[in-house]
Prior knowledge:
The protein has helices spanning 4-10, 38-42, 44-52, 77-87, 100-107, 131-142, 161-165, 176-189, 205-215, 229-235, 250-260, 301-313, 333-343, 354-362, 377-384, 390-396; strands at 16-20, 56-60, 114-116, 147-150, 172-174, 196-200, 221-224, 264-265, 269-273, 282-286, 295-299, 316-320, 348-352, 372-373. The longest helix has 14 residues, at 176-189. The protein is of the alpha/beta class. The radius of gyration is 22 Å and the shape is elongated. β13 (348-352), α14 (354-362) and β14 form a beta-alpha-beta unit. The structure holds adenosine-5'-diphosphate (ADP) and magnesium ion (MG). Residues 201-203, 207, 226-227, 244, 296-297, 320-322, 324-325, 327, 353-356, 377 line the site of adenosine-5'-diphosphate.
Amino acid sequence: MRSVDDLIAEGVSGRRVLLRADLNVPLDKTTRDITDDGRIRASLPTLQALREAGARVVVSAHLGRPKGTPDPQFSLAPVAARLGELLGADVPLAGDVAGEDARAKVAALADGDVLLLENVRFEAAETSKDDAERGELADRFAALADVYVDDAFGAVHRKHASVFDVAQRLPHYAGRLVARELEVLTRLTTDPERPYVVVLGGSKVSDKLAVIEALLPKVDRLLVGGGMCFTFLAAQGHGVGSSLLEADQVETCRRLLAEADGRIVLPVDVVCADRFAADANVSVVPADAIPDDLMGLDIGPLSVDLFTAELVEARTVFWNGPMGVFELAPFAAGTRGLAEAVSAVEGLSVVGGGDSAAAVRALGLDEDAYGHISTGGGASLEYLEGRELPGLAVLAD
Length: 397
Ligand code: ADP
Ligand code: MG
């Protein structure tokens, strides 16, 4: 796989580079302000390197899930503005994805300039299952540039026109972020230093069963918190009140617990509430005695201590998924305690998952204390599951 640094070494001055970036940042529902610009900042190293080498950079990206047609709510305009601030340069936004305005604005670029194309998901073809439909859009992308660089790690598990098909049409290179993510994921999957501890949380156990199945044979400990721990607690025969429960996964969790032979560690206490609200009545109860009328919204302090004790010994850690509803202050302590324990790990600590990375930043923790904070939740999980990621396979060709 060639990297953007190989491209720069070849000489990229004056050449048009189509750079697929992951700029899919969360926006405030009413003001449309960017609430966490982590992904924009993560894309700067590749972008700056290309600019400094004199490339004419055409950035393509998606934002949210518009329905395959232009929708001002999902315009990349706030992203263009923030990108411009961070680069200290004007970043114009094309009025379309790969149409007339994009072509005109590309033609007007000077060496070192950056143009952002409008949200690629304004074109239904971007995500189409039909190869010919995606191909037609990819042809239009390819006509905008001389070479293609993919730095959108968060999208490499998608067989989309701007990720997969366009790479087949232009000389292609991996950006620095993609290269770094791959290096870290390789260390997690190839002979990790032991003890190797994986921490999983988040809302749905069904989202993460595949990765649990894949990782269980390889890890020394699997710590489970978040909404998904209740399906495991139910599998042990405990009542979970009105906590998140995926009844159809209880049997699978029971089998996994048996296979794990003690290596799956569950919370021993739970922060419960009488309703899902920041001003609910809150109490901490043993994990095997959750009252019927309460819901568990965070792991308790004894569980944080238990998980921390496992992490102190660890030399390789992968953490995905918050331990509780960290967005609400009364249920943030579990995620904060876990995040602090992960940051103190001596060895490789990796945080994966959009919400987990956002939690690290929202709780004001030091991002530099982690070995790596992955920008791609789904992509890193699919990689760890051992699946082939279309966006990476095409770069390796
Ligand atoms: P990531 O994006 O890091 O992979 P997920 O998307 O799987 O994480 O899950 C994040 C969400 O899980 C958060 O919005 C959080 O509020 C929610 N969550 C965590 N614990 C619970 C719980 N006990 N009950 C309900 N939701 C929870
Ligand atoms: Mg998420």
